[in-house]
Amino acid sequence: MITSSSVVLPDRRPVVTASSLTVAFCVGLLSLAGMAALFGGMQILIMGLAVALAVLVWARPKEAASTAVLFLMACNVLFPTVSRFDWTWRYYQPWEMAYWAAGLLIITLAAVARIGISDLWRIPVSVKAFLAVALIATLVGFARGNAVSFVARQLYGSLLLVAYFAIAFRIGDEDLFLRRLRTFGLVCAAGFFVYYAATFGELGFHKEITALATLEGAAGILCFVKGLTERGHGWMVSALVLTAVPVLLFERRMFVTFAVAAALALAIKTSSRKARYLWLAVALLGMLSAILVSWAGFVLETVQSIPGMRGALPFGGGDVYSLVGRNIELGLAVQTLQRSPILGEGFGAQIAFEVPGAEEYVQQIYVDNGWAYVAVKMGCLGILVFGWFLATTLRGVSRKSLALSACFLSMILVTMFSEPVFFNFNTSCLLGAMAGLLCARKGINASPPP
């Protein structure tokens, strides 16, 4: 006989899974973004998003490695058209950078407080050495009277690089990192497509000065190589959608970065020596087109020779003047090292040059060429410790982390020649997290706690 006390009724309460919460979060974000775009208050939405992500990091610390990248993707999409960086500079509104920096600070402080500084400090000595030189470069910048706001901004980028290396190194989850970049990258890509369609009648195909192309392009590379490894069609389709963002913005360096990353992934993946040499040769050709002005000019001329292509290219998409300028920056970096060989001229230092053929005299605090950036801002000592940092990270390159390995290598070999991705606070979180995950997977020893 079965008594009433022994009857166990089935639990009919709805099961809340991580995927359902992710979908609900994305739907809510898109709904609020639409309302903010129509009625204003996008700044409040962005700061609210930062607080929500900080709460997520506090509740689930393993999410911390990807949250800053997700926030930056959203920032580059959710702000209205009037605050975007358009190629013509007519929409230039520098105030948005303050919201990006403040939101990143909220998320990062939540992660640091939740994990603990003592635990995060257990990182390789090379990373600590880089941080020490970055702090010295800050003091040099102040001592030389460089603009305080730019000194602080450039220090911030280096701090975020180290912070997200430490977060990913100590508690990061590679599979979770890739899944989050895929999911939220697709959501942000969808938002970008809506924006692009809304402005296409006015702007047509156009370039913009934005970090979105780099962030979405990197996510596309990670998805493509992940799909290549697992032969997953879903990852490949995601890569196609994500890569459409830099394509629409005609971000040439991301085209080359993607091609080089694919070739490197195939070179690492294959067991055939001949095939490896072949793919490495393809990667080398891609690097040359991104570095050498003559080679880049040949490629562009070939593209423009296609019927109808010249008229379809956006303003600034058919010249190599930007690449010329970045090569000139390397020469200026050498001159800086001759004047100040040990520490350079510190964060916030300016460079000035005239671009041949463009009849333009450029004076800027920002250095586009990432390698010139290190030399100008941190000197030979900075080059030494940054090289040590890269050498430590490259020890983690392997077939087991093929997506991270190929993407990270392509960023070093291609993107760094046109953008200081390791130091710009719009992208340093991504590079720091990838470096930390690579070192963690390889089991690279951390320095012992104090």
Question: Can you walk through the features of this model?
Answer:
The protein is mainly alpha-helical and 450 residues long. It has one domain (20-442). Helix content is 69%, strand content 2%. It has 18 helices and 2 strands. It has a two-stranded antiparallel ribbon. Helix 6 (125-143) packs antiparallel against helix 7 and helix 11 (252-269) packs antiparallel against helix 12 (273-291). The protein is globular and about 55 Å long. Mean pLDDT is 81; it is low at 1-9, 11-16 and 85-93.
What kind of assembly state do the chains in view correspond to?
single chain
- Whole-number total of structural domains: 1
Uncertain segments: 1-9, 11-16, 85-93
User: How many E strands?
Assistant: 2
Roughly how much helix do the residues carry, as a percent range?
Answer: 55-70%
What spatial order of strands do you see in the largest sheet?
Answer: 1-2
Mean pLDDT: 81
* Beginning-to-end CA distance, first to last residue: 66 Å
- SSE succession: HHHHHHHHHHHHHHHEEHHH
Q: What value does the Rg take, in angstroms?
A: 23 Å
Shape: globular
Count of alpha and pi helical runs: 18
Largest sheet: 2 strands, antiparallel
Structural class: mainly alpha
Provide the β-strand percentage band: under 5%
Q: Can you give me a brief rundown of this structure?
A:
This protein is mainly alpha-helical and 450 residues long. The chain has helices at 18-39, 42-59, 64-78, 96-115, 117-120, 125-143, 148-171, 174-203, 212-230, 233-248, 252-269, 273-291, 293-304, 309-312, 321-339, 370-394, 402-413, 428-442, and strands at residues 351-355, 360-364. The protein has a two-stranded antiparallel sheet.
